[in-house]
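Re-run with default settings, no changes from the original entry. Doing this only to confirm the output is reproducible before filing.
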Amino acid sequence: MPPLPTASQRYQQVAIEELGTPLAEVTFVVVDLETTGGSPKDSAITEIGAVKIRGGQVLGEFQTLVDPGHEIPPYISVLTGITSAMVAAAPRIGAVLPTFLEFARGAVLVAHNAPFDLGFLKAACAENALVWPTSASVDTAVLARRLLTRDEVPNCKLATLAPYFSAATSPTHRALDDARATVDVLHGLFERLGPLGITTLEELTGLTRQVDPERRRKRHLADGVPHGPGVYLFRGPNDEPLYVGTSTDLRSRVRSYFTSGEQRSRITEMVGLAQRVDSIPCAHALEAAVRELRLIAEHKPRYNRRSRFPERALWVRLTEEPFPRLSVVRRVRPEAGVFLGPFPDRRAADAAVAAVHEALPLRQCTARLSPRTPVSACALAGMGRCGAPCTGAQSVGEYADVAAVFAAAVTHDPRPLLSPLLQRVDRLADEERYEDAAVLRDRIAVLVRAVRRRQRLASLAAVLELVLARPDGDGGWELSVVRLGRLAAAGNAPRGTTVRSVLAGLLATAETVAGAAGELTTSVDETELVLRWLEKPGTRLVQLTGTLASPAPGTGGYSAFLTRVETGRDVQDPFADGRSLGTRARPERVAAAAPAGRRTRLASPV
């Protein structure tokens, strides 16, 4: 029987370097995939490439093509160079995965945009009844964002980082090449870790989950926030609103701002300034979303980006004059012409105007014309782009027939306006003028969306009063009173109470909305929130004063066209990392030096 260890042998204090696994001893498997699309729900893997490394040395490589089980789309073949013929004799993913999992056994998986690659692998394992290993993973895109500054690289894409770190292999959208490039990027990032005192795997994986100590100290600001739906306001040193948000669980959402889950740089700065959090409980999510919009529009908090300036929305107006023209304006005035919109920016408004001018010979000059005083024509008349009403070649009545096509398109029937435009797209494509066809197609899409949006808004703005009810999931009902497109009251009818009894009180205390039927009495964003609430499955119409109807024929016939446009835009780069991975002005740092036995982490606010 061996002797028992002495006290000094049993209780021995180890150095800080011995706590955790040194990075030099960790085996990493850097993996990259090529797929037929951007989502594992409707796409499959076509190639796997992986490189196993430890201590800066390459231990092995893994590469195989994979038969996805269906044809590879042509645009994917152009992007990756992998064709259906190349994978015809390749194994299926079910035969490849066991070999890859054995290759990666016990290693830490590394990928650039790890949610994409690991998401496909996890989905493939689930589909083939294989167990996904519960190993650590590292996303080099996120790691680069924490370690590099905006002055060094403009973004954290692999194509940007590889030349910055002088990678021996350039990314080519082939799995093994991209994995090799990621290896060099990973080593380049590791060189940044040494001076920061990060030497172990545990510190590496914790780097992206650091919490600023100053942020942790402010967790008490969430103590008085209740659970349930509502709106929260972070207030600054002078009691000014810094940020307005909404949640179905106020307390949980506010508490998340003081944890590692919140990594947005501007929010980190906002939390550092915050002195108080106010909460406004709401009856349900619609009321919370509407109150959020109104508070943002009223206070314009500096850390909110969305909906701060609803008054800056743009509209395209058909002016009221003998020879009307299209004008981009910021205000909708009742009985002041026909308005199309709103548009988020000037580019979208100009695109819609350009599309209309492609279809209709409306004048584009800005001078006010008189039918009794002819003037000389401009170049557009000679090009056939204008009927030249300025010269008397077109009477007021003849010009009004042209303008009526635009007015009808906005209110109910866009077919006479859009049909010639779509025919022109087909002609340009037949003539192989694809770039011109794509420009016109995108302009038409902007125009169709604007017409659809305007008609949807008008349908709700015409209703004097609308009462909606949705199940609350617990046997009760969530109630909303909408007047002229504006949320006038909100409440709940819990289980055991009747909707009518609660509704009587809501109607008696609901906001009185001033305006006439057909006029927008609130922001466009608020009316669209109500529309989305109305169109959700399960919403019931309780009471209606007025007429709720969509115009006929409307824009329903152009849904397939809009889908094709969106699909064509999405497939330009289906593998693009949609996360915000831009570098920071000052990335968060970790103190390089600390007293023995203790290591302090410091995070710099951006």
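Residues 434-461 form the longest helix (28 residues). The mean pLDDT is 85.
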